[in-house]
Amino acid sequence: MQVSPARYSRNIDWITVLLYTVLVGLGWVCIYASSYSPDAPNNPLNVMSFDKLMAFNWFKQLLWIGTALVLIVILLVVDYKAYDTLAYALYAGMIVLLLVTMVVARPIAGSRSWLELGPVRLQPAEFAKFTTALAASRFMASINLRYQNWRDQLVLAGITLLPPLLIVASNESGQALVFGALLLAYFREGMSPLILLLLAAAGIILLLALLVPKLWLVLAFTVILVVVLGINRRILRHHLPLAVGVWVSVIGMVIGVDFFYNKVLQPHQRQRIEILLNPSSDPLGKGWNVTQSKIAIGSGGLLGKGFLQGTQTKFDFVPEQSTDFIFCTVGEEFGWMGSLVVLGLYLTLLWRIIYVAERQKSVFGRTYGYCVACVLFFHITVNVGMTIGLAPVVGIPLPFFSYGGSSLWSFTILLFSLLALDAYRKQDLVR
Questions:
Q1: Chain segment 223-233, per-residue pLDDT in tens
Q2: The domain containing residue 220 runs over which residues?
Q3: What is the pTM of this model?
Q4: Based on the domain organization, do 273 and 188 belong to the same domain?
C-alpha cells in the first residue's frame, strides 16, 4: 500500500524537525557571534562582494544550511526501503572512499582526512558513521543473527571497527572514537552487558596505570586474585586457569601501557591526556585551549555578557572558537541559563530520537535509531566535556552548532534518514 504525500507529511515527526531547526538556528547565531568583529561593517551584505563574504564562517555556514535543506528533501523523498537494501553497498563504498582519502588527501594539521573538491572540503570520516550505522543495523536485523554465536559477534565487530581503523590510519583519532558509541545501541538489541563492563574495566585499568606506580598496581591486583581464590574455593577448583588468565591480561595491560603511550600515541595525543590529568601543568602552552575555554564559560556567569558582547571569543583568546570550542560562545554570551537551555534542547532531541526508535516496527529501524542517538550523545558529551576540562580535546564537533559542512551534513543525514524510516513505520520492512 502506497502512502499519499499528505499522509506521509503527517507521519513525519515534526517535533524532531522543530528541535533540529532550533538547534541549527542557534548554532548559526553562535558561529556569527564567535566570528563577529566590532570593526566590521554593520551590514556587510550592502558593502561586500560575494568573494569577501566567503571569508566569514557565518556566511559559509549559511550556505551549508541551505544545502542541508536540499539534502533533507532528498532524504525524505527517497524510497524508505533503500536504506535497508543499500546498507551494505553504501558501507562498502565508504570503505573505498576512506582508502582513497588516505592516499590522495593532502596533510592538514597532520591529518589526511579531507577530500578537496574545488573550493569545497569534505571529511569522509563524518559520513562513515552513517554508513556504519546502516550496515550494523542491517546485520543485526538479519534473521540468523544470534548474539550468543561468536561468529556473529566477530562479524559485527568487524563492521564496526574497520572504518575507525582506517580513520586512525589517516591520523584522525578523534573521529574514530565516536564509533565506540555504537556499542550502546548493540546493547539495546541484546549484546551481553559483560562486553561493556570489560571495556569499562579496561579503561579504568589503563587510567590507573598512568596515575599509579606500576609496582603498586601489580601488587594490588595480585592480592585481589589471592583474596578472591581464598574466599571462593569454587573458582580455585574449577576456574583457576580463567582467573590466572584474567590476572595475566590485567598485568599485561599495566606493564604495556607505557609502550602504547610512548610508541603508539602521537605527541599531540599524549599532550591532551597529560592536560586532562593535570590541567595546571602548562596553562600557557599545552593547556592554553582548555584554560581559555573555561575562562570564557566561567566569565558568562548566570545570564551571560549578552549577544556579541563576549571578550574571550572576540579577541581570539579561545582557539577554534567556531568549531571545536563553539560551546564557549554559548557560555560566555548567554551564561549558565543559556547553556542550560542548549543542553536541555539536546536532551529533548535525544529523548525524542529514542522515542522514535522504540516505535519502529522493524529491528533495522529500531537499531538504526539507537545508533543515531548514541552517536549524537557521544558528540555532545565529549565536546561539552572538553570545553570545561572534563574530557580530552579530541577535536570532534558539537552537533548542529560547530562550523563545518561535513559535520552539518553528516548529522542531518543521520537524523533525517531515521525520520524517513519513521514516516513509513507502519509499512514494516521485510527484516
A1: 887 777 777 66
A2: 197-277
A3: 0.86
A4: no
pLDDT above 70 covers a percentage of the chain that reads 81
* Three-class HEC string of 129-149: HHHHHHHHHHHHCCCCCCCCC
More confident residue, 205 or 411: 411
Alpha-carbon distance of 431 to 426, in angstroms, equals 13
Residues 139 and 217 in one domain: no
Q: All 3 cell numbers of residue 73?
A: 528533501
Judge if 161 and 68 occupy the same domain.
Answer: yes
Burial of 204 by CB count in 10 Å (0-12 exposed, 13-18 middle, 19+ buried)? exposed
Q: Rounded distance, CA 342 to CA 325, Å? A: 15
Q: Are residues 336 and 380 in the same domain?
A: yes
Q: What is the pLDDT of residue 431?
A: 47
Mapping DSSP to helix (H, G, I), strand (E, B) and coil, where does residue 54 land? Answer: coil
pLDDT one-digit tens code per residue, 155-192: 888 999 999 999 888 877 778 889 989 988 888 877 77
Average pLDDT over residues 288-301: 82
- With beta carbons less than 8 A apart as the criterion, state whether 113 and 105 touch: yes
DSSP state of 111: B
Q: Which helix (H) or strand (E) holds 117?
A: strand 115-117
pLDDT score for 40: 60
Residue 372 near residue 418 (C-beta atoms within 8 A): yes
Q: What three-state secondary structure class fits 122?
A: strand
Choosing from 229, 253, 277, the residue where a domain stops is 277
Beta-strand pair 115-117/120-122: antiparallel
Backbone angles phi, psi at 116, to 5 degrees: -105, 120
